[in-house]
Design brief:
By secondary structure, the protein is an alpha+beta fold. It has three helices and six strands. Strands 1-2-3 form a three-stranded antiparallel β-sheet, with no helix packed on it. It has a three-stranded mixed β-sheet with strand order 4-5-6, covered by helices on one side. A hairpin with a 7-residue loop joins strand 4 and strand 5. It is elongated.
């Protein structure tokens, strides 16, 4: 895996990342840090990466278990250390997973497997942060068929 980060120049703190898979992402700093608030902060991108990694795992695990998963949202909230390096000290993942006849236990198992076994981003962040999870399952009933 590779990526390249280029600084946008002397008028701010905008950086552009180019990934080995051919994608581009911008990062910027807060105005008080010399940035212009044109893009997410690098640490926000790190938190986003952990959320994406975990959500990917949860959906994949549920699909492999032949569950009718139709949606997955994870909202993350984090706290950082007061002093440098301002690492994450607490991260809470709040999953909302929807599907048809989706068992709560299956979703909780998928979240647990992601955290304990599969999500590399969470494993790295768990070195400094206390990671917690909440799970909500929304049942989407089968669509009604019109009566004849």
């Amino acid at each position: 895996m590779e990526c390249t980060i280029d600084w946008g120049g002397p008028d701010g703190m905008l950086f552009v990342a180019r990934t080995g898979s051919g994608h581009v992402a911008a990062m910027d700093g807060a105005p008080e840090g010399g940035g212009n608030n044109l893009a997410p902060r690098p640490m926000e991108m790190m938190l986003t990466g952990a959320g994406g990694c975990a959500a990917y795992d949860v959906v994949l695990i549920l699909k492999r278990g032949r569950h009718a998963v139709t949606g997955c949202r994870v909202k993350l909230s984090a706290e950082r250390a007061e002093t440098d390096p301002k690492v994450f000290t607490r991260i809470h993942f709040d999953f909302t997973v929807s599907g048809r006849n989706l068992p709560q236990a299956a979703v909780e198992r998928a979240v647990r497997l992601s955290h304990d076994k599969y999500c590399s981003a969470s494993a790295i962040l768990a070195k400094t942060a206390d990671i917690t999870h909440a799970v909500t399952v929304l049942d989407q009933a089968e669509p009604e068929t019109p009566s004849q």
